[in-house]
Amino acid sequence: MSVALRMSTLYAPTLKEEPAEADLASHRVLLRAGMIRKAAAGVYSFLPLGWRSLHKIEQIVREEMDAIGSQEMLMPAMQPSELWQESGRWELYGPELMRFKDRHGRDFCLGPTHEELVTSLVRNEVRSYRELPLSLYQIQVKFRDEVRPRFGLLRGREFIMKDAYSFHATQESLQEHYDAMSRAYARICERLGLKFRPVEAESGQIGGKVTTEFMALADSGEAALVYCDCGYAANVEAAGTVVPRHPSVTEPRPSRKVHTPDIRTIAELAAFLGIREHDTVKTMAGRTEAGRLVFFLVPGDRELNPIKAGWAVPGVTLLDEEDFAKFGIPKGSLGPVAPPEGTVVVADRSLQSDVAWGVGANENDYHIVDAQPGRDFEVAQWADLIVAEPGDGCPECGAVLKGARGIEVSQVFQLGTRYSVSMGANFSDEDGVDKPFLMGCYGVGVSRSLAAVIEQNYDDAGVSWPATVAPLEVAVLPLMADGEVLEVGERIWRELAEAGIETVLDDRDERAGVKFADADLIGWPFQVVVGKRGLAEGVIEVKDRATGERVTVTLAEAVDHVAAAVRTAKAALAPLTPHP
Predict the structure, then answer these.
(1) 540, burial (CB in 10 Å: exposed 0-12, middle 13-18, buried 19+)
(2) What was the pLDDT predicted at 252?
(3) Between 348 and which of 14, 25, 377, 385 could a Cys-Cys bridge form, CB atoms 3.0 to 4.6 Å apart?
C-alpha cells in the first residue's frame, strides 16, 4: 500500500495572503502552500509537504549517483580549521565561511563544501593506484554566511546539497567519470521535469579549470547565459565571445588632447565629444600580487569581466578607492597613453583592428581623441576581457549568440591536483612512484532544485508539480464532509493507495471553493472531485493540474483511470538516456 494521508490531520498551514517578504514565485508558493517556514534570514524549516518533495529530489539524486558507481557516505558538517589552512582556503574563502571557536578556543567552520575533509580522509586510507578510481557522495546540510540572503531557497545561509568527490590515477579516468557525472546530472534534471542547459562556467572558490553548470532556465534566474544553436552555451562570466566592431574612424588621424571638465562616465564623455560610446575605450585598473599596475582596456559600451581579467593576468585584483590615491592615478581619466612607469597594458582583442581610440589622458579632466595603438601607446597583451552579451558572435561557429537567464541547480568540476598537492594526498602508481590524486567534485543543490522546479511550474493559483516531485500524486476532494460523498471519496482514496498511488483525502469540513483553492495552491498533479450531483449520475471528475483539463469518468473506471494517468505522467519524466 502506498502513502495515504488526510488533510484533516496533515500539518500544512496554507496562507490566503501573499507573504510580503517573498519576491520570487517559488518563495511565495512555498510559504503560502505551507511547505516551508522562516526561522531566520536565509534559514528555513521544511514542513511535511515540503520535506516530501525534497526527499523525492534526494531519492532521484541517489538513484543516479548509485547507477554510476558513486558510494554514499556522510561527513561531519563541523570541520577543523587546520584542514582549510592546509588547502589555503581558510583565508581565501572569505566572510561567507561560517567560522567559530569551540570551548577550548580551537577554530572550526560549518562546511559550505567538503573538498578538504574528503581529501584528508582518502589520503589516510587509499595508498595504491589499484584502489582507484574512487567516487564518494553525501547529501547534507551546508552553510554559507551570505551577506544578503534572499529569494527563499535560492540564496540561503543553510541549504541542502549533494556533494560528490572522485579520486583518480590518470586524466583519462578523471575525464571518464566527469562525463558520467555530467550525464547523470542531465538525467536528474530530466527526471525533475526541468528545462535546462549545461553551460561553460567559472570555478570560483572551488578551484580547478574545467567546469560545467547545469542551469534551469527561468526569467527569475540570477545567472545570465548566452547560447548558440550549434550547441555552445556558457555563463556570461565564462563565455568566450566574438565582439562585433563597427568603428566610425577607419583611417589614422593625429591624436589630440581635449579638456573634458567634470566628465565621469562613458556616456557623458561620448555626449561631450559628439561620438558614439562604441568609439570610446574605457580603462580599468588592477594590480598584480607583486604590486605592479595593470590597465585593462575594453570598448566603451562594454563591461570588463573581472574573471577574464584574472585569466589574462593571474593573481590580479582590481583597485579599490584607496588604491587610486596610493598609485597617484585619476580614476575618471585613465588611459594607455603615457601611463605610470611599469604599467602593463592589456586590451580586449576586439579592439585589435580599430585604428583610433578615444581614451583617458591619465590627467584629471582630460581625454585623448584618435589615439592610435602602436603609435601613441603599446599594448602588451591582447585578451578576451569583456562580459559576453546576446548578439555577440559564438566563439565556436561565429553565429549570433542568444540570451537567457538561469538558476544554477548543479555543477561539475575537474579539480586536478588543486587539493591533493597542497594537502599531501598521494598514491603509489604502477612503478611505485608517489603521485598526487587527480580529483573531481560534483554538486547538486537539492533545496535550490526544489525552488527551480516551482519557478518553471507555477501560475496565479499556485504550483503545478511534475509528478516525480509532487508531495503526493493525487488529491481526492469530496465536496461534502459526510454521507455518501465522503464514503465514496474515502473508498477511491483507499483503492488508489492500494494501487500504489500516493494519495491525500481532503476530508476537512470546508467549502468546495476552499478545497479547490488549496488543491491548486499545493499543486497536486491530479485532483479527483467527488460531488453529490456527479454521484447521482455515477461519475466523478478528474482534473489534470498541469493542463487544467477535466474529464468525467464512471465510478467503476475512476481508480484505473487515475492510476494510469499518474504512471504516464511519471514515465514521461524517466531518464531519456540509458545508464551505461
Answers:
(1) buried
(2) 84
(3) 385
Percent of the chain with pLDDT over 90: 74
Task: Find out whether 529 and 541 touch, Cβ atoms under 8 Å.
Answer: yes
Contact 526, 475 (CB under 8 A): yes
Q: Is 322 exposed, middle or buried (0-12, 13-18, 19+ CB in 10 A)?
A: exposed
Least Cα distance to 199 among 177, 176, 232, 224 occurs for 232
Per-residue confidence (pLDDT) for residue 491, from 0 to 100: 96
Mean pLDDT of 413-427: 96
Q: Are 211 and 411 in contact (CB under 8 A)?
A: yes
Residue-wise pLDDT tens digits, 196-220: 999 987 655 544 568 899 999 999 9
What does the alpha-carbon distance between residue 501 and residue 558 come to, in Å, rounded to a whole number?
13
Around Cβ 576, how many Cβ atoms within 10 Å? 9
* Residue 180: closest CA among 72, 68, 67: 68
Per DSSP (E only), the strands in 190-232 are: 196-200, 210-217, 223-227
**Number of other CB atoms surrounding residue 116 within 10 Å:** 25
| Domains and their CATH numbers in the chain | 35-240+402-455 (3.30.930.10), 256-383 (3.90.960.10)
Task: Name the one residue in this structure whose C-alpha cell is 572569505.
Answer: 94
Q: Both ends of the chain: CA-CA distance in Å?
A: 33
In our burial notation (b when 16+ CB lie closer than 10 A, e otherwise), range 230-243 reads: eebbbbbbbbbbbb
Residue with cell 559576453: 388
Query: What is the spatial distance between Cα 161 and Cα 408, in angstroms, rounded to a whole number?
Result: 12
* Closest to 393 in 3D by CA, of 554, 543, 228, 203: 228
pLDDT, tens digit, 9 for 90 and up, residues 311-347: 899 989 999 888 888 888 988 889 999 999 999 999 9
**Whether the predicted pLDDT of 355 surpasses 50:** yes
Are 281 and 358 in contact by the 8 Å Cβ rule? The answer is yes
- Joined together, the cell numbers standing for residue 64 give 543516479
Entry pTM: 0.88
Contact 22, 37 (CB under 8 A): no
CA 22 distance to own-chain centroid: 19
d(CA 276, CA 299): 11
Quick one: DSSP state of residue 113?
A: -
Output the 3-class SS for 229-258: CCCCEEECCCCCCECCCCCCCCCCCCCEEE
Length of the chain, in residues: 580
Residue 492 has a pLDDT of 96
Instruction: Determine contact, residues 455/448, Cβ cutoff 8 Å.
Output: no
Nearest by Cα to 516 from 471, 554, 479, 467: 479
Q: Strand 293-299 and strand 344-348: pairing?
A: parallel
What CA–CA distance (Å, rounded) separates 499 from 157? 41
